[in-house]
Structure formats: structure tokens, C-alpha cells
Write a structure and sequence with these properties.
heterodimer, A: 213 residues, mainly alpha, MetI-like fold, 0% strand, flat, B: 258 residues, alpha/beta, 10 helices, 24% strand
């Protein structure tokens, strides 16, 4: 395998990272909205978001990408594959992060909300100053775990013609007929991204366990 | 039912809190029955009764931590309603101290005390800090200002919780079993703080089983059972000649323990 082939893989890696970041940032923003809606106490909002979460947790990511890419094209919305997979990953990540963060918000003891209310803090301040800082700490290990899954999940974007790391590997492998070598390198590149995150997650989990002792 | 105080508040002093015919249900279960209670400015009330008798529920209705279904509650002339602006306004006037302290664990002692004044009274940071340090000094815990709640003992945490509530300059303080979660050796420091507060003229409603505190501090002791007010009297009378059988029973049990 020459330098050109390796460079091609690195370009694929760049798109994998870009897609992960988009999915995570988009999912973070909308996921926070989903988590707040799920804990809002407003029945309609809670039901709608819980249905949304059920659908996206209950179907394969691959199918979700298909539906966004081909489904939207069918109703006349011809999206660039870039935009389509970004939307797909954002929707997917919003559902999972929304559910993780809902659980974390609910794991903050009820007395915290009561004390904040008794001090006449309004909803925004109760969330921003009291509940979310504690909920985020509780959610960190699970959030990082999901991020790792999301990075690996970006390989499914290949199915709609998006050339990220996995598909780049496939292309190179078909050119130079050294699948073991090529996919070994591809795997190593994924590992280099995900393993440090897993380490950070494990460390945060230990810290959290120590802090609550 | 006894509703003497509702009909005869002390002469000249306005009612700080007035509850009239308040009823509350949890589904089918009736938690409060026809509560009539009037508390004058500066008055100290001790609420006692067996567990599940509705004492905590009663004071939690006053700052709308619990909604109620019937009757009216007034705090300093404002009628409590479901309107969030009214609720917020009343909560600014009414401080509350909880059994389990409920300090914010991710904030230092000082930040715990500064948060609400800055957010809901729009105090400046400097103002809020000055008030917080002064009141932490008053509960004798000024030197712990930079620590986190988990680094303090239970008694210290509860004194911080009192200071945090006082930072809002409330007109009324509600205490919900403030010493029940404390080790025995820490009960006194919290009770002393509360006694000090009472001596300075704070209007207080305390749910507590500390009968020594009731004797020493309370203007009136109210006994509740099964969600209703059974008896209320000044402590001297309450402890020496309770009128109702249930009160005698309760006093018999609780005084034997102490």
C-alpha cells in the first residue's frame, strides 16, 4: 500500500470525524431539548418525545439513514448525501442522548428541585444552575459510551454512498487486493479514536463513584 | 376541630400567614382536612403529631411545594394561587429548611447562599456575597464558606441551609423536621441557631419533635393527627393539660422517649 492509498484512508477518517462531530453536536443540542421535554411535566410533550425516542431506539441506524436519504428523495426533497447523513445522525443521536440525559435529570434527588423552588428560583435557573450541572456529571460515562458507538456507527453512512473511513477502506481494498492489511489499518484508526474516549469514560466513572461515596 | 387562632389572632398584629379551610387530597387519600391557621408576625409555631399526620404537607402548601384543592392561603396579604408569578413572589418571602438539608452539592457553601439572591432578587455578586458572609457568620460557620457541603458535618450543613434561606431576607421561615436527620450531638447546634432566630423576632413555623424547643420557644404548639388540627395551645398549657385524648396519647409516647 502506497502513500496515496494511505492518504485516501486519512481523508475518509476526516469525514468520519466530521460526521461524528456533527452527529454529536446536533444530537447534543436537540437531545437536550428532548431530555427537557421528557421531564417537563407537560403530558403532550412527554408523549411526543417518548414516541420519538421509542422509534429511533427501536429501529436500526442503517434503516434510519435509508429512510432519511431515499425517503425524503421520494417526497421530492433531494438532499445531498452529506446533508442527509447529517440529519440522520442528528436524529439518531438526539433520541439516545435525550434518553440518557432524561435518566440523569431524573436521577438528581427530588430535594434539589424542592430546595431550588423554595428559594424561588425559576425553571431556567433551576435547570441551569442546580439540576443540569449535577445531571451532566451523572450522565458523563453513558454519554461518552454513546459517543464511541456513534463514531463506529458512522461506518453505516457508506450505505448511501458517503465515503467515510470504512468505505474508503473498502475502495482501497478493492484496488490493491490486500483486505487484511487495509482493514487492519482501518480498524486501528477507529481504535485510536475510540479507545482514549473509553479510557476517559472509565476514569470519569471512577471519579464519580468516589465523589458520591 | 379547633380553630381558635383563626378567629382570635393577637390584637394589633397582622396575620402573616392565614390558612382558611385548606384541604388536600393525594388521589383518594385526604391528606389535609379543613386547616384553619393564622400566624401573626413574629409568632413562633411548633407543629407536632404522629408521622403521616400531615404536618409537613401543611407547611409545604404554604410555599406551594404541594398544591392543595380547597380553601385559601394568604401570605402577607397575598393570596396564593397557581400563577407562577404569585408563587415566586410568595417563595421570595418564605424561607424553608428541609430535613435532609438539600444543599446544592456542586456549589460551595458560599455559592449555595449567593445563588438565589443573585437569580431571583437580582442582587449584585458583591451584595450577595456580603449578605452570605454575614449570615454564615451568624450561624457560626463563616470559616467554612469555601468548602463544599459534603465536607461538612450534618449539623453544619443544616446551619448552612438556614443561612441560605435567610439570604433571601424572608419574612417567614418554615422548618420541616430540621433535626430529624441529625446525629444527636448535632441537634443542639441547629436548635440553638433556631432559637437565636426566634429571639430576633422571625416568624417561624417548625415541624419538630423537639419538645424542649417547643417549650422554650413556641408561642403556640399545634397538634395534628390524620390530616387535621386537633389541638393548639401555648406550650405551658399544651404540655400540662392537653384537652384531647389523642394529644395525651401522643405526648405520653414522645415524652417517654426523651
Amino acid at each position: 500500500m502506497g502513500a496515496n492509498e494511505f492518504l485516501f484512508l486519512l481523508i475518509g477518517l476526516k469525514w468520519t470525524i466530521a460526521l461524528s462531530v456533527i452527529g454529536f453536536v446536533g444530537g447534543g443540542v436537540f437531545g437536550l431539548g428532548v431530555a427537557l421535554a421528557r421531564t417537563s411535566g407537560i403530558p403532550l410533550l412527554e408523549r411526543v418525545t417518548s414516541g420519538y425516542i421509542a422509534i429511533f431506539q427501536g429501529t436500526p441506524l442503517l434503516m434510519q439513514l435509508f429512510v432519511v436519504y431515499y425517503g425524503l428523495a421520494l417526497i421530492g426533497l433531494k438532499l445531498d448525501s452529506w446533508v442527509a447523513v447529517s440529519i440522520g445522525f442528528t436524529l439518531h443521536a438526539s433520541a439516545y442522548l435525550g434518553e440518557i440525559w432524561r435518566g440523569s435529570i431524573e436521577a438528581v434527588p427530588k430535594g434539589q428541585t424542592e430546595a431550588a423552588k423554595a428559594l424561588s428560583l425559576n425553571y431556567v435557573s433551576r435547570m441551569k444552575d442546580v439540576i443540569l450541572p449535577q445531571a451532566i456529571r451523572i450522565s458523563l460515562p453513558a454519554t461518552i459510551g454513546f459517543l464511541v458507538q456513534l463514531i463506529k456507527g458512522t461506518s453505516l453512512a457508506a450505505i448511501v454512498g458517503f465515503t467515510e473511513l470504512a468505505r474508503a477502506g473498502n475502495i482501497i481494498s478493492n484496488q490493491i487486493f490486500q483486505p487484511l492489511l487495509v482493514f487492519g489499518i482501518v480498524g486501528a484508526l477507529y481504535f485510536v479514536m475510540c479507545w482514549p474516549l473509553s479510557l476517559v469514560g472509565a476514569r470519569l466513572e471512577r471519579q464519580f463513584a468516589a465523589a458520591t461515596r | 376541630m379547633n380553630s381558635q387562632s383563626a378567629t382570635a389572632p393577637a390584637q394589633g398584629a397582622e396575620a402573616m400567614i392565614k390558612m382558611a379551610g385548606v384541604e388536600k387530597w393525594y388521589g383518594e387519600f385526604k391528606a389535609l382536612t379543613d386547616i384553619n391557621l393564622s400566624v401573626r408576625q413574629g409568632e413562633k409555631i411548633v407543629l407536632c403529631g404522629p408521622s403521616g399526620s400531615g404536618k409537613s404537607t401543611l407547611i409545604r402548601c404554604i410555599n406551594h411545594l404541594e398544591p392543595y384543592q380547597k380553601g385559601e392561603i394568604r401570605v402577607g396579604g397575598t393570596v396564593l394561587s397557581d400563577d407562577s408569578r404569585i408563587i415566586d413572589a410568595i417563595r421570595r418571602e418564605v424561607g424553608m429548611v428541609f430535613q435532609h438539608f438539600n444543599l446544592f452539592p456542586h456549589l460551595t457553601v458560599l455559592e449555595n447562599c449567593m445563588l438565589a439572591p443573585m437569580r431571583s432578587l437580582r442582587a449584585s455578586k458583591a451584595q450577595a456575597e456580603a449578605t452570605a458572609r454575614r449570615l454564615l457568620g451568624r450561624v457560626k460557620i463563616a470559616e467554612q464558606a469555601e468548602k463544599y457541603p459534603a465536607q461538612l458535618s450534618g449539623g453544619q450543613q443544616q446551619r448552612v441551609a438556614i443561612a441560605r434561606a435567610l439570604c433571601m431576607q424572608p419574612k417567614v421561615m418554615l422548618f420541616d423536621e430540621p433535626t430529624s436527620a441529625l446525629d444527636p450531638e448535632m441537634v443542639k447546634e441547629v436548635l440553638d441557631t433556631m432559637t437565636g432566630l426566634a429571639e430576633e423576632g422571625m416568624t417561624m413555623i417548625c415541624v419538630t419533635h423537639e419538645m424542649g424547643f417547643a417549650r422554650q420557644v413556641a408561642d403556640r404548639v399545634i397538634f395534628m393527627a390524620s390530616g387535621a388540627i386537633v389541638e393548639e395551645a401555648p406550650p405551658a398549657e399544651f404540655f400540662t393539660k392537653p384537652r384531647h385524648e389523642r394529644t395525651r396519647q401522643f405526648l405520653g409516647e414522645i415524652l417517654r422517649k426523651h
